[in-house]
Amino acid sequence: MYFIANWKMNPLTIVEARKIFASTKKYASNFRKTKVIVAPPALFLGDLLPKIKNSKLDLAIQNIYPGETGSFTGEVSSFMAKKAGIKYAIIGHSERRAMGETNDIISQKLKNALEIGMTPILCLGEKTRSDSGAYLSELEKQIKESLDGISKNNINSIIFAYEPVWAIGQKDGNALGANEIFEMVVLIRKVLTEKYDRHVAESVLILYGGSVSSKNIEQIIKDGRVDGVLVGHLSLYVEEVKSILEVLNNLSPRGKKK
Ligand code: PGA
Question: 2-255: CATH homologous superfamily?
């Protein structure tokens, strides 16, 4: 089971970041059945990296530039992140897509991360929902275009995070319903079966993100049948982190019975 804490552009200071991180690390060692990955702002990564030694926790970078070094002001390369000891990279988050990141750019970042041996956390999700069902083709297009040129052998190295954009940053009652999450998980696996094969599609890890909290987590895992969650704003509240991990620790991925 996976718990990914996406801190986004928070907290304000390194002192606060250290505090949240220390508690998260403690909970990660208390609830060992869940893989905990924290994605802080890039500025804090260097400070937090030594703290993950001999722990169960890993760090992710929230975005990468696909390359090594060069004249790319404001960017951090995948190569630098990997060399520094960061194993995971969030790619294609909707907040970056909103800044102009296209499926084509995401596909380049994905290929690059895979080439250098980082585990990409690929975010996908429709912007809105309507009765026309256009969101289904929107998601399908995102999957196909993001995975363009990526071979079957590499698919299991990607963690998929389905995050409907309209459900992000809301109160927990506004998360997508667990049954609807499951429908989207089925769709993702169907598209992957068509592009690759059933075996690959069934084994791939799929997480849900979008207003996950300690109140809805159980339903999301059980009925959404996901392998974990990507948590944004509530991952900064350590009591919530603790409660979510407590619940996750007693569940099996995809809501399977133990
Ligand atoms: P949220 O964010 O938990 O604040 O909805 C999730 C995300 O954007 O990854």
Answer: Aldolase class I (3.20.20.70)
By CB atoms closer than 10 A (0-12, 13-18, 19+), residue 26 is middle
- Which residue's alpha carbon is nearest to atom 3 within ligand 1? 232
- Which alpha helices (DSSP H) does the chain contain, by range? 14-30, 42-48, 78-84, 94-97, 103-116, 134-146, 152-155, 178-195, 198-203, 217-224, 238-249
pLDDT in tens, 229-257: 999 999 999 999 999 999 999 999 998 76
Q: Is the CB of 174 under 6 A from ligand 1?
A: no
> pTM score, two decimals?
0.96
Pair of tokens at residue 22: 């220390």
pLDDT digits (tens, 9 = 90+) for 120-150: 999 999 999 888 889 999 999 999 999 999 9
The backbone region for 220, taken as left when phi is positive above 0, alpha when psi lies in -120 to 50, beta otherwise, is alpha
Q: How many CB atoms are closer than 10 A to CB 73?
A: 5
Q: Which residue, by CA, sits nearest to atom 6 of ligand 1?
A: 232
